[in-house]
Amino acid sequence: MKAWTGYAALLLLGAALDITVRLFPADLLVWLPWEFSWPEYLATALTLGWFFRGLKVLPKAQHPPLWRSFCFVAGVASFWIVLQTRIDYYAQHMFFVHRAAHFVLHHFGAFFIALGMSGPLLWAGMPGFLKPVIASRPVQATLAFLQNPVTAPFLFVGLLYFWLIPQIHTRVMLDANLYELMNWTMAVNGVMFWSLILDSRAKPPARLSHLMRALLILVIELPQMVLGAILSLTEHDIYPVYMICGRVLDMTALNDQHYGGLIIWLPGTLTSFAAMIVVLVTMRMNEEKAEREAA
User: Fold this and answer.
1) Domains of the chain: which residue ranges?
2) Are 264 and 228 in contact (CB under 8 A)?
């Protein structure tokens, strides 16, 4: 009964936010939605709700370390910030802000969510009727496909390139439904890929060995550097759609594009470097654990 009361409260809060955004758009606080989205609100609210309910349901011995919980909450919060605050407005009118938002969805925020290792908490906190759905063969087959060592890096790099094809990007930025689809695919793919790479367990039960994880990090790094270099060094405007939408900051089209390319190039490379460090540390910790168990 308490659980359903909590869901009702989340729905009421969402309705209140929706009405507030519609009726008082000029008086919104900075953390409130710029354009309220029910799917994005429910994804955020339910994820955090199941997370904190899982903390109550599971014994403390099964809780992840505090720093992992902090990483998970920070990652989910970062998704909310770039998707449901005024940052999203700027992302629709400035290419470099758009790239910064996608860096959060595809790298930074997804990286922290994966680092949180909070799957058991979410499983414990979600309602019972959803668990058979998540455990069903179609859902598990989809997850296995998304985290296959061949398809995972291909999708990670492929989606980044696909949504930046000039003709497709122009269409997406002028179509609200395609724009939302683009954001969802980047966020989900980011979480799937980094969860595969940053799994703290050895294989098995982890899907990949530490060597394979390191290899996949190298596979995705070079194409990102190439794309970022192209965008940051090209001397003509590849995305005139932002002139159509109207740039809201005093910046030339080339400067906007160059800054966007640098965001793909440099922070993306740093994220791969951080992931490599995590994989190496995890590998060493698992080796020490295996040595203690053998002794």
Assistant:
1) 63-118+132-294
2) yes
